[in-house]
Amino acid sequence: VPAVTVRVGFLGAGFIATYHAWMLATSGAAASMAGVFDPDRDRAERFSRDHGARVHPSVEALLDAVDAVYVCTWTSEHRHLVGEAAARGLPLFCEKPLATDLADATDLVASVHRAGVVNQVGLVLRDAPACLLVRSLVGDPDAGRVMSVVFRDDQYLPVEGMYGSTWRADAARAGSGTLLEHSIHDLDLLEWWCGPVTSVCARTAQFHPHEGIEDVAVGLLAFESGATGSLTSVWHDVVERPSLRRVEIFCERRWIALEGDLTGPVRWQQRGGPAVAVEGEELSDELARRGIAPRNPDGAFIAAVLSGTPASPDLATALRAHVLADACYRSAASGGAPVEVGHGAT
Ligand SMILES: NC(=O)c1ccc[n+]([C@@H]2O[C@H](COP(=O)([O-])OP(=O)(O)OC[C@H]3O[C@@H](n4cnc5c(N)ncnc54)[C@H](O)[C@@H]3O)[C@@H](O)[C@H]2O)c1
Q1: Residue among 162, 112, 146 at smallest CA distance from 310
Q2: Angle 308-292-221 (CA atoms, 0-180°, nearest 5)?
Q3: I need a labelling partner for 158 at 20 to 30 A (CA). Which of 2, 76, 106, 212 fits?
Q4: What confidence tens digit (pLDDT) does each residue in 168-225 have?
Q5: Which pLDDT score is estimated for 344?
Q6: How many Å lie between the centroid of ligand 1 and the Cα of residue 290?
Q7: What CA–CA distance (Å, rounded) separates 165 from 84?
Q8: Per-residue DSSP letter, 175
């Protein structure tokens, strides 16, 4: 008998688990907060008080008590936790990056496909109104072909401030630095907006004293369409500055810019037209005008679990972004030589 309310469990009770708990609560989805496990007992208890989830003493005890699981631990734990959840046939939501490197990410996705479970990844920008509008503006035939894209992403090294996570300075738990941990979102957005990448050249640098954690990554991307793009990703020390992206996309007959991460403004100008800027609440109206309904991705995950239909974006989507990140790291390791990227679904 299918469950009417999905009992959701959380592995990890930190920053992003709290975000998903809040998103679930505001989604109106038929989900109950059934449990949490975090080896940091204080965190688990705080999460339990704030969200009503029962604290479980182990991963196994949690998995026994839930219908679906969120994997919200630091990155190095994702592979084995996803493997355990999938082996039990549990639908799962896994945070990005999937794993600390491409090999583990590939294994993780294989375990989920073998189990055939509903799966979704935390590539949350695909549901951000500003990013949805950029996709609509780029995809509009009036814009013409994409010629070039300039993508800049900067954030303070997230071991301080609201993130306060020392694991992000530890390559064993994070895998690597700003490109994998943060700009995996950007690699995903670049293909989502502009189509498949065929080749990358990249450079990385490290200013902070954290072995294996690059805090600058710069990539030059060749798209199958003939477009060329650049991505610059930086982790600095300006803690007063929020995480910010700035993207400019030059199409043949339209210029498009995204400022800020989630709420714009999005600006554009079409040949023969005025300069337009849309931000905040106006973004929903603009999306509605274009027939695009924003969704709550956590609510959509629960709906997919209930109906047993595929969720999106799924883990295979994130694996593609891992392929791009891995190509950038290989290029950087060789001093910036081009690395070809095979075709992948976007
Ligand atoms: N989608 C996004 O935009 C986004 C944003 C932030 C973080 N993330 C990702 O989410 C993950 C968690 O990041 P965070 O910011 O929440 O970190 P965090 O440090 O705030 O929380 C991680 C928690 O995982 C716990 N943990 C470690 N091993 C565990 C295990 N085996 N079982 C259960 N819990 C375990 C830790 O004790 C810690 O409390 C990372 O992979 C990160 O890259 C994604």
Answers
A1: 112
A2: 90
A3: 106
A4: 999 999 999 999 999 999 999 999 999 999 999 999 999 999 999 999 999 999 999 9
A5: 60
A6: 36
A7: 25
A8: -
Token couple for 37: 């496990």
Tell me how far the alpha carbon of residue 14 lies from the centroid of ligand 1, in angstroms: 6
Classify each residue of 183-210 as buried b or exposed e, where b means 16 or more C-beta atoms within 10 Å of its C-beta: bbbbbbbbbbbbbbbbebbbebeeeeeb
- For 309-321, the pLDDT digits (tens) are 999 999 999 999 9
Where does the pLDDT of residue 261 fall: very low under 50, low under 70, confident under 90, or very high at 90 and above? confident
Task: Give the Cα separation of 291 and 336 in Å (integer).
Answer: 42
Tell me the two tokens of residue 44. 């688990």
Q: Which residues pair with 199 in a beta bridge?
A: 222, 340
Number of Cβ within 10 Å of residue 220's Cβ equals 17
Q: List pocket residues of ligand 1, CB cut-off 6 Å.
A: 11-17, 37-40, 43, 59, 72-75, 77, 95-97, 122, 124, 163, 165, 167, 181
pLDDT band at 346 (very low <50, low <70, confident <90, very high): very low
Q: When comparing pLDDT for 10 and 294, which is higher?
A: 10
List the residue whose alpha carbon is closest to atom 15 of ligand 1.
15
* Sequence letter at residue 319: L
Whether pLDDT at 301 is above 90? yes
Atom of ligand 1 nearest to the CA of 18: 16
Q: What is the pLDDT of residue 4?
A: 87
Atom of ligand 1 at shortest range from CA of 43: 39
